[in-house]
Amino acid sequence: MIDVALPHTQPTFSPHVAEFVTRVLERLKPLTSEPEIHNHVHEENTQETDECTQAVKLLKTVLKWLMASAGRTFTTPVQQQLQLLPLLFKIAPVEIDESYDEMKQDARTCLSLMSQGLLYPEHIPLVLAALEEMAGSRSWHARYSVLTYLQIMVFYNLFTLLSVPAEVLCIRKLVMQLLLDEQLEVRDMAGTTLSGLLQCQFFPLDSSLQTQLQTLSQTRLPKARGDADLVRRHAGVLGLSACILSSPYDVPDWMPQILMDLSDHLNDPQPIEMTVKKTLSEFRRTHHDNWQEHRQCFTDDQLMVLTDLLVSPCYYA
Question: Which InterPro entries match (predicted)?
Fold first, then answer.
């Protein structure tokens, strides 16, 4: 039993969880400089003196310990948990795949359990600082995992986070930063995250956000375009798509115009074209049942454009 305080007894003098975790983290330092962490232990003749190999062996034990303690609400101090986050983000796979070794699966499980922890207001800046650090990682798997972690953390701590407006703005900035990521998978996940945050009204779809997304979506693509121009334009389209998908069963005042803005991108290069088609397809599916009511929110010109989009040959191409 470590750091257990029982009624009418003296607190434990030793050992302490914080001191133990500090010593463990010191031995895991060889892994912190690597962009991604892989299982170094493949052969029996691996030299025991190799620091990375020893660190990976220790990390496997730490992951088991974290999973066991997470089920009882983390007994590890928050500061020590956050120091472990960068390592977990580097290990955890983006998709569940049986081909991944046990260490990767354990890291994914640990991230999932840690993201479900309830936070006190004073812990939120520490968590966001760790996520912002990993959002700048060289590994796109780590940047992707930041978004999946963020989604769960926000929904489990929604009311606590809403009580700290400054942190809400930090999360909005972080999602917008990853919406502009060079990796397509990260941008797609950022769009999904943005849609979920808008749907639960974590932050409003105000005029400043709409303007920001529309400006990005209107980035010019010159004939000799670079990847940066395409990324910015796609980020804007993903953001506009997130707005549409955040209201699956009603038509807010802003939706008709955003649908018209998206229609201008139907002939854009990939992956923009596919994003627009998926969004229109989902809009049609979710608004089909009450379409007679929803169509009253559109002008005749908008209805004509929308009808042409949803039944035209290019939509099904």
Answer: ARM-like, ARM-type_fold, PSME4, PSME4_C
* 163 domain-assigned: no
Token code pair at residue 234? 């796609």
> Distance between CA 167 and CA 124 in Å, rounded?
8
Please work out, in degrees rounded to the nearest 5, the angle formed at the alpha carbon of residue 138 by the alpha carbons of 133 and 140. 95
107, part of any domain: no
Yes or no: say if 28 and 87 are a contact pair by the CB < 8 Å rule: yes
Cα(188)–Cα(284) distance, integer angstroms: 20
Would you say residue 249 lies in a domain?
Answer: yes
Q: What is the pTM of this model?
A: 0.83
Per-residue pLDDT of the chain (317 residues; tens, 9 = 90+): 456 666 777 777 766 777 777 788 888 877 766 656 665 544 444 444 477 788 888 888 888 877 776 644 444 556 666 777 777 777 776 655 555 578 888 888 888 888 888 888 888 998 999 899 889 988 888 899 999 999 999 999 999 999 999 999 999 999 999 999 999 999 999 999 999 999 999 999 999 999 999 999 999 888 766 789 999 999 999 999 999 999 998 999 999 999 999 999 988 899 999 999 999 999 989 988 888 899 899 999 999 988 887 765 444 44
Domains in the chain: how many in total? 1
On whether the CB atoms of residues 233 and 221 are closer than 8 A, the answer is yes
Domain hosting residue 191, numbered range: 187-197+209-219+226-308
Instruction: Identify the three-state secondary structure at position 316.
Output: helix
Q: Greatest CA separation found in the chain?
A: 78
